[in-house]
Specification:
6-stranded mixed beta sheet, 13 strands, 5-stranded mixed beta sheet
Amino acid sequence: MPFFYRLDESDPALNAPRTAANLIDLRVQLDRDVPPKTVLERLLLATWNIQAFGTTNRLEESYWYIAEILSRFDLIAIQEIKGDLSALDQVRALLGDWWDYIVTDVTEGSAGNNERLGFLFDTRKVEFGGIAGEIVLPPLKDAKGRSVAPDQIFRTPFVAGFRAGWFDFMLATAHIRFGKNKRADPARVMEIRQVADFLAKRGSRTSTWSPNLVLLGDFNIFDESSPAMDALLDAGFTVPRALSQVPSSNVGAQPRRYDQIAFRLSGQPQLQPTQAGVLDYFESVYTDDKFGSYAPGLTRADGSVPTDKRRYYQNHWRRREMSDHLLLWAEIPIEFADPYLRKHADAGPSR
């Protein structure tokens, strides 16, 4: 297994036989849907909004499924980490000592929803660059040229520097407000524009840690032609073809492209995802045909028993166990020894 802890059959909180059977199904799907991790050649980057990660009372087995999924990637941006870090620590323990994370402080205020943003990474492949911070928007000028404080982003975006192979980059993650249930909610569009413009200006400075920017997370974008997507692209970010063609990332009947991975590459413009995808883990865990195994103990979050258990299982309970967002990933080349050597060889004296 990708992590070294063993299922404890004596643990009353863990149904070891059921967990093992589900892990077998999940591992088969992951082998099929996600490229294998490499030592040097490619970076497997992912973003996942894990619903209420730290306050939801999940089954013990759900942490094993989450850890198995995360183990297949090198660097994951996670949204909706709550103030209590015990869930993240539990998953990290399952992954192994070579995994590390960086998280923000909790965003204050009701709009912040007691959330953190974080990066989880495999230190055998990814190196933290030593620079990290939350985005604070600079003052604006009013009609008389006076500085005025702008409205800050509800859930403060997080940016950090990383290195993987020949690729150094600034990775920024955001959880944009949803606002009204329409594709062009003005508050949502404004937040995306503020974040994208801020990062584009910061990335253009000669003093920036790296000119390569990757912006990812939950943007609550409905579709590719919405003004919310335009706000991202207008700042010079691009969503490569490999990513723009993947299925929607929300769990539900309506297809929504809530989650995005966008690039603004100045230092290494040849970096483009070679593969990308959305992982629908409900093909393997908490599937419709496994309802009977969970039905006896199935309750709402408040402990009450739903009238229609099967419907509640499909539309609410299993999302509480995993998430209401699917994981979005991209595979990025990071080994450029040959182009580097050819560049220097061509610049030398002819033989």
